[in-house]
Amino acid sequence: MLLENKVFEDLAIGDREELRRLCTLDDLIVFANVSGNHNPMHLADHDGDGDGIPEALCPGMFVGSLISAVLGNVLPGAGTLYRSQQFDFLGRASAGDELISSVEVIAKDAATGCVTLKTEVRQARDDSVILRGEAVVEAPKVRIHSDVADLPGLIVQRHRHFDALLDRAAPLPALRTAVACPEDPNSLGGALLARDHTLIDPIFVGDAARIRACAQDLGADLTGIEVIDIPDHALAATRAVALVNEGRADALMKGHLHTDQLLRPAIDRATGLRGGRRFTHVFVMDVPGLAHPLLVTDAAINIAPDLKTKVDIVQNAIDVAHAIGIEVPKVGVLSAVETVNPDIPSSIDAALLSKMAERGQITGGIVDGPLAMDNAVDMAAARTKGIVSPVAGQADILVVPGLDAGNMLAKQLTYISHAEAAGVVMGARVPIILNSRADDDMSRLASCAVAALHHHRVSRKASGQGSAK
Length: 469
Prior knowledge:
The protein is α/β, with parallel strands linked by helices. It has 13 helices and 18 strands. Helix content is 33%, strand content 23%. Helix 3 (160-169) packs across helix 13 (441-462) and helix 8 (307-323) crosses helix 13. The longest helix has 22 residues, at 441-462. The chain starts with a strand and ends in a 7-residue tail after the last helix.
């Protein structure tokens, strides 16, 4: 951040500056910890007034602190010190609101070197004033022109969104799931953990001796779980698919075998699980600091999808978003640029997908593209580029150009941003739970929760009851 302050002599009556800030749930958690104000009115998933609805209102002094950011960073800037601050609170802000904080010089006192400023915080969406006041500050005495490195980032809370998924899936009946080859500690342990959380009711298909030996190593009890002994992985996957076709299972889950071994019998035209769309993979990601789950697709199955395949990729992802509670998902179709460039095929596909959604060929969400990664997820970046869109800066779903980009994006979020990822395959008649060997317990549980929620939603629609809320 470049600091260029104004000393007392530089300031003039009428000087004005403002900053924008998107308030997040993490901001409220940080403020609660730093200030010691744990009022449940200001915390997500807490009902502070007993009306049954979590408020997540921004604390008044948090909103007021946005004024200090303008004073300390911009006007007068570095070196400013408070003398006094008066506030009138005229409205409320909530997590997810974008706020504009502004200051304006209204008086100067040469004897004391102090400056009086009118202070104000407004809602960006409608320009309504929620805070108004007046500050008296000591103006900087020395001019400062320097680059200041950004503060270290904070990982405030992990798996908040996955916790919400588990809570959402908790009341549902366990999903009858054929688990192919759970023959190592990760896959068997994950399936048993999901069973213990009543997310799935598993049938194990694979090498019975290896499954039981692994259970013994884990100290796990397999009592009550059917184990079908088929040591060959290809044959075990075929039998797991057959369990779905026989009506004994409502989902398929990957164990300790290669993904292509599991999917090969599932895509068989005669005996597989084809459901009318291409099989596509969806990551549901819990990214620390992001106020909502982020879906990334397709990062695991379709290598270089054509436009027709991308239509299914988008529609399948929208279906997953609906299942996890995003009623109108915002879909950002990614490219290297945010304008259509005939030399970049992904930008053309993105524009076509956007138009197809406008014409009703893709339903259930708002689709926009091409968008570059920055202006798909960051409102400030979108504003800088002059992009006006209900998706830009706030995408729920990111549709990548191809598997290379998707795989890199998902792994960067996981290993650099400390995100957790749940993986499901859509397009089949039943959800296919696709975990990686590196996934932790929460990722495995969340994958099962996503599958259970999707199955429940499809079942309710088929029975005429509508989607689950």
